[in-house]
Amino acid sequence: MEKTVQMYEGKAKKVYATNDENYCIVSYKDDATAFNGLKKGTILGKGAINNRVTNHLMKLLEKSGIPTHFVEELSDRETVVKKVTIVPLEVIVRNIAAGSLAKRLGLAEGTKMKSTVLEYCYKDDELGDPMINEYHILAMEFATKEEIDLIAKYSFKINDVLSHYLKDANIELIDFKLEFGKTADGQIVLADEISPDTCRFWDTVTGEKLDKDRFRRDLGHVEDAYQEVLKRLMGE
Amino acid sequence: MEKTVQMYEGKAKKVYATNDENYCIVSYKDDATAFNGLKKGTILGKGAINNRVTNHLMKLLEKSGIPTHFVEELSDRETVVKKVTIVPLEVIVRNIAAGSLAKRLGLAEGTKMKSTVLEYCYKDDELGDPMINEYHILAMEFATKEEIDLIAKYSFKINDVLSHYLKDANIELIDFKLEFGKTADGQIVLADEISPDTCRFWDTVTGEKLDKDRFRRDLGHVEDAYQEVLKRLMGE
Ligand SMILES: Nc1ncnc2c1ncn2[C@@H]1O[C@H](COP(=O)(O)OP(=O)(O)O)[C@@H](O)[C@H]1O
Ligand SMILES: Nc1ncnc2c1ncn2[C@@H]1O[C@H](COP(=O)(O)OP(=O)(O)O)[C@@H](O)[C@H]1O
Ligand SMILES: [Mg+2]
Ligand SMILES: [Mg+2]
């Protein structure tokens, strides 16, 4: 498969068209942003780590019955994926209160939720990715009822599979963000990435943060944390 | 029924205990607040109007099968209601985009929604009544799944009944806020008020605002608007 034109450059990845219209190639960057683009920086080696971690986890999820966009890893930073129309939602899954949820509800970070919380944000940088609910999704026609139900079902299943898998690597899955897309033939698949950029990973024993919060909150050892996740998941 | 001690003074009403522990007496004030209490003022005659409009609409809803807290109007400003434990949610029903929804989704005020939107806010002044969804409600145990389903069902029904009723008075029901409570025997009933303080009412022909937005946005003729609603609904 050959890259042709660049379709899109996002904050963390570039997306290229290929000679096959059903596929595209994503190329992961070392660029890091936070607070809706207000904070900018670089995390050396992040692109390669996020590419490999994402593909590793997507393969695991495929085996557990979750359809994903993953096709083939091409290199350190580049992967062939099914081209999809992204459902304009960030689906956030939360097991433990942290970040915006802790603030919104006045909970201490680290509070275990009595049940898993799903949140939907409308993926729109200009509006600041506002939180919405299922009624907004239907009224705005971002997705149909059937699509939302499937996305919610997949999200809970992904949470189950990943939480258990990560626990064996001494990583607690606090929360994470998913994006789903629709293939040319109308199938809903997991798209985008699953990485320390898009998840909160805490060491199960020490509580140490192994994710992008080290960058957001200037905690230091940012690169080390990404490396550590790669090592725990893929032994290198 | 006799008022005994004041149980609570809110921004728009006082609530008194009575000699019967299953009932309380609400007393409507002329005080007006907006933007989570940042803006304060007085709307002359508002208390009496909101008391009468609320009771009028609650009686209409009871006839349509919605259980409410309404018991008996005592005077211009005072009404006996069933004492309930308020479910700590503001339930917002939206037919047309306005206010915070228009802002959140980048819609022009007045945009008709393709389907009715329900929103839940956690009723907590200190947190600024943050918007939450059903998953938060369950995880925080603000209500059970059965209670949420019933509250949603009632809210849609109330929207239907009121929209039709108000249209005959040349009032378009844009959006409104509801509160529900639980009686001593565990029944979910509509509580609080339904008034120009808690609804957006637009004249169906001119689009003129007949609600608290006149106060929030300094549009003038605030008292006139409240009077006009009373007149259209109760002929006086
Ligand atoms: N399989 C796919 N097909 C098409 N677009 C995708 C696919 N997977 C992810 N994308 C999109 O690629 C874009 C690039 O990713 P990213 O740099 O994270 O962008 P953003 O700055 O929007 O977060 C995102 O808009 C994402 O939704
Ligand atoms: N039937 C009822 N029993 C007990 N409390 C009620 C009932 N109906 C409404 N309330 C509560 O009475 C309080 C007074 O009303 P209001 O002045 O509007 O208060 P607030 O400033 O909290 O909005 C509110 O907290 C409301 O939830
Ligand atoms: Mg992204
Ligand atoms: Mg109130």
UniProtKB/TrEMBL annotation, chains A, B:
EC number per UniProt: 6.3.2.6
CDD domains: SAICAR_synt_PurC
Keyword Metal-binding among UniProt keywords: no
Catalytic reactions on record: 5-amino-1-(5-phospho-D-ribosyl)imidazole-4-carboxylate + L-aspartate + ATP = (2S)-2-[5-amino-1-(5-phospho-beta-D-ribosyl)imidazole-4-carboxamido]succinate + ADP + phosphate + 2 H(+)
One record GO biological process: 'de novo' IMP biosynthetic process
Entry-linked InterPro entries: SAICAR_synt/ADE2_N, SAICAR_synt_PurC, SAICAR_synth, SAICAR_synthetase, SAICAR_synthetase_CS
Keyword tRNA processing: no
Keyword annotations: ATP-binding, Ligase, Nucleotide-binding, Purine biosynthesis
Span of domain SAICAR synthetase/ADE2 N-terminal: 7-232
Any one GO MF annotation of this record: phosphoribosylaminoimidazolesuccinocarboxamide synthase activity
Gene3D superfamilies hit by this protein: ATP-grasp fold, B domain (3.30.470.20), Phosphorylase Kinase, domain 1 (3.30.200.20)
Cited Pfam families: SAICAR_synt
Pathway, per record: Purine metabolism; IMP biosynthesis via de novo pathway; 5-amino-1-(5-phospho-D-ribosyl)imidazole-4-carboxamide from 5-amino-1-(5-phospho-D-ribosyl)imidazole-4-carboxylate: step 1/2
Domain of life: Bacteria
Protein family per UniProt: Belongs to the SAICAR synthetase family.
Cited HAMAP family: SAICAR_synth (MF_00137)
Protein name according to UniProt: Phosphoribosylaminoimidazole-succinocarboxamide synthase
Gene label: purC
